[in-house]
Each structure stands twice: as C-alpha cells, then as structure tokens.
C-alpha cells in the first residue's frame, strides 16, 4: 500500500465513521472530507470541485424539482380519484397504494413519488380507520424498488451510469435497468401485498406541525369562470370532488349584479345580499360565486380540480405585472387593535391601499359565513389568509395589526393545478429514451419549462431541492475518485478477489450485491455506489468476467436499503408519520432483502451475461 493509498483509505474511513456517529450532518462531513483531501494532496486542485458540475448532481436536483411540480399539479390525485372509493380495507389499500407508488417512482425520483402519494395514504387512513403505519412502510419500499427500473428513478442508478461511463466510456441508458428492475418489482409487490401484516400494530404517527393547529374550517369565495367545467354541475357533484370534505355553504350571484365590481369600494356602497343557501340538486351557473367551507388543503384541491377562481386571487392593483415568485400567502389572526376589526375589506380598501387580498376566513363558533368576503365584517380573533407581495408583507401585517401564525405549508392561493408537469415529464422521458438529448439536459430543460408554463415559481423550485443531498454528492465524487486515482480500488478488488477465489461467478455476484446492501444503511446509497462501483468493476476484471452485471449488482443493492430508517430518504420520510421504531424496518425489510437477492442475482446474470464478451 502506497502512502497516497493509505491517506485515501484513511480519509474514507474517517468519513464513514463520522457518518455512523451521526453527530454531524452528512453534507458537512462530505465537505470536510473534500477539504481534507485537498489539504492532504490526494485530490488535485483542478479536480476538487468537479463534483459540483457533474451531471449526476444536475439530474438529482432536477428530478426533485420535477417531482415537486408533479405533486403540486394534482394530476396524481385526479388519476387516483376513481380508485379511492374502492379502497376500504387495508388488504386492498396497501397493494394498490404500493403499486401506484411503484409505477410513479419509475418515471420520477422515488422519494418524490413517495412524497406525492403520502397525502393519499394519510387521507385514506383518516377516513377508513386503517393504521397509517400499515401503509407507509410498504409504500416506501415500493418506491425504492420502483426506482430501480429506470435511470432516473433512484440516485444509485444515475451515479452508476456515470461510473460505467468513466470505466468503459459508455453510460447505462434510460431503460438498461428495466429488465431486472421489472422482475424485482413484480416479486416485491406480491410480497408487500401480504407482508405488511408483519408490521407491529398500534403504531401511531408523530404529531406534526399541521396537527398542532386547531383552527376551524376556512371559508373561501370562488367564482365559476368561462373555462371551468363546473357550470351545470349540481352542488352535490361539486362537493363530491372533495369526497365530502368541502361543503358549499352559499351561492352568490355573478359579480357586479348585487355589489360594486371592485373590493376597493367605500363603506357607503350598498351592502350585498346574503348568499343563497342551496340544496344538493341546485345547479351552478357561469360566473356565479360559491362559498366553500373546509380545511385549507381540501379547499385548495377542490378549487384546483373544479377550475374555480378565488376572490382576491390576482395581481396587486399597483403592480399588474407582479410575478408569482414575488407573492406570499400568510396565515394570521386579527387582533383587537387591528383596523380590520369591525370593518369589511371593501370599506378598508384592503387591496388598493394595503396591497393584500383576503383569500379565506376561519371564525370560531360560526360554521356558516354567508357574505361575500369583501363585504364580511371581520372580528377580533378571526383567522385570515392574506396574499400579497412578499417584500412588503411584514410591513402590511404590522399596519393591519394581524398577528402571523407559525408558518405551515399553505397551498391555497399559491398557484394552479394542471396536467402540464406530467406532460413536461413525459416529453423529457421520451427525448431521453429516443437518445435525442442526455438525461441531464432533458431534466434541466423540464425544470425551465415548469417556469415558462408558470406551474411553479423559482422559490418553490429552490425549496423542493434537498440541498444537503446535492452537496453530499458533489463533495463525495472527488473524495471517492481519490481512492480510484491512487490505485486503492485495485488493491481492494485484489483482497475481494482472494475472498471469492474459487467460487462460481454467480456466487461472486451475490457477494457483491450483499456487500453493497450491507454497507448502504451506514454509508448512504450514493456514497456506496461511488465507492463500490469501481471496486466491483475491478473485481470482475480480475475474475475475467463482464463488469456490467457487477455494476448492476452494486446499483441494485445500494438502492434496496430496507433494513434501517437512515440509509435511504424514503425510509426516513415515513418514520415520523408512521410512528415506526428502528427495529420495525427489519420486520418487513429483511425478508424483502432476501427476496431481492434471491431473484435479483440470477436475473442480472441472465440479462447481463457474466462471461466477458
């Protein structure tokens, strides 16, 4: 072992030890390792920051943004809506939700697919009484397994494609993983359909910030525009879009027929008549207004699905060209000193004078608000949703004496839902599959298209990226490269070759996958691929075998971490909401891991022959 090899191994050993200790954040450890490698001289200065410009970093970040846009679009909920009424018991809910999560993770980042599907599971758990713990872990495992089917489904596949390109000059393509991945998916889905019963009963999810809010239901005023298909629907049909979670508490005549057109009118304007209290068979007409009552998230869904327009949703009068990036929605309480108390937004000329719009009101002790929101006389203690320019919102809240509540994710008034994100994603996947553009270019173009079509703002895009993971990848690429450049991978492969000497090639392949699977819970799947990929390829070369199946084995083993909550983001994501303990993962994950090895190893050897060609 040369001094440089010793330094490279020592640096990686310290890095892994710090990962295992958990005292410092993963990204901080990776950055420290990068700096140490530069100082020790085992990472050349000209290569130190190549990781930040690497395609894999662009792909992972872009995939997270696209997943967020697809989740916000409501398209998945629309697709799932016909199935939801049939999902009454856990024996049906678990396999259906796992299958949907699996399919979605094949075309977008697996952690994003899980994040998109989790609200559906939480909603079903609330309505049917099924323990949420019975659904979330199988969905997390299904997301990980589904991700191995395509290049972009999981980070190990993306990184392994780059490793193969460095080693052979040719990367893995979009669907090179599919023959093996689809077989693994079929077996995993059959197991999860019954295996969820291995999970312990009685687990309850940790209380979230959302649960800490005991705010009553909000009331919003929405209008039926020309392009909406709601005109002609009955009240019952509109309420059915939210599966009964939102109620129509009143119907208002078209704007302008009973009140001045602008909410900046003075207090001398004639008051609007109260909203009509409709029956379930009342049909809605074009341009009529509806008062909707429900939780904020349910209101956002029905407004988006029905194509309604919120009262107060539009540009600020003095800034008609205001971009969505500049807008903010704030939840606050009207205090006793507020000029809003005892007055209406119209009388206060809220939009034109203060630059904010009233989107929704929650009032304790009063279930039915029957006034237009512009004509509603607000009271101290009312909880309001206000929308305005982010730059001036703090000053506006101070002037209005509205006390902002602790920030939580409020989608109401923050953009529209549509099929555009799914269409953009499909176009990007098609371009990659046809070989027109590389993955990084296609996904980068997809993110830009999201901005062009205004389905998300740049602020939302930045929030969607898991920056610690991006930094971890960018910093570890040159660190892991140091082991390879100093000849450390050849040294390790030699030791491993000695360990498997005399074994059949398929046994060596199984050892490689098991090693990747064992290391991943402690090292992180991205780091596992970066470190073990070159070692596996060198091992195959020393055994006189084809390196591709060994690279596939490392990618599959690193992607399938079912044993702990720390090795993969999907496992971490469901731990709190599902109320899982550390040991719960092995109950379901250990038999699934055995299945993956038992099926994956022969499948890889069949699809990617071991003999060097």
Automatic annotation (TrEMBL):
Keyword Transport recorded: yes
SUPFAM superfamilies: TrkA C-terminal domain-like
Transmembrane segments: 7-22, 28-45, 52-70, 90-111, 132-154, 174-199, 419-452, 464-483, 495-516, 522-543, 550-568, 588-608
Gene Ontology terms describing biological process: potassium ion transport
PROSITE patterns: RCK_C (PS51202)
An example Gene Ontology CC term for this record: plasma membrane
Pfam families recorded: CitMHS, TrkA_C
GO molecular function terms attached to this record: monoatomic cation transmembrane transporter activity
Comp. bias intervals (Low complexity): 262-272
Glycosyltransferase in keyword set: no
Entry's localization field: Membrane
Disordered: annotated span: 252-279
Chief place where the protein resides: membrane
Protein's membrane topology: Multi-pass membrane protein
Keywords, sorted A to Z: Membrane, Repeat, Transmembrane, Transmembrane helix, Transport
UniProt domain RCK C-terminal: residue ranges: 317-403
Protein name: Di/tricarboxylate transporter
Species for this entry: Muricoccus pecuniae
